[in-house]
Protein 1
Amino acid sequence: AADAAILDCAPGTPFLRTRRLTRAADGRAIEFVTSLLNPAHFALHMRF
């Protein structure tokens, strides 16, 4: 419910959730990000 209020949408609205972990050259974690993206405004394309 807190996320829905921040994102100005109804609770239960489907969102895309992405998580990213960035590591330094020595393997230490230096950044961890969780993003909630409204699929009405974002498209996610990944290539491996």
Note: The chain has one domain: 2-37.
Protein 2
Amino acid sequence: MSAQSQRLFTVRRADSNDGGAILACLAAAFAPYRNSYTPAGFADTVLDSQSIEHRLSEMCVFVAVSEGDVVGTI
């Protein structure tokens, strides 16, 4: 990988403002594998606006941020 293609990122705890970006990351990451999941399993993995709010309030969720944009989540 060349230095020009590397992106630096930081990891921080997600907050309630990150919900939409987290949903977008999950959808992009798991969409190619949708057919490998049951419908319930895919919904539990990719989440929706209600389930991400619950997870953010009940669990410790982290995001990777590069140049101000959420680029990943764990």
Note: The longest strand covers residues 62-66.
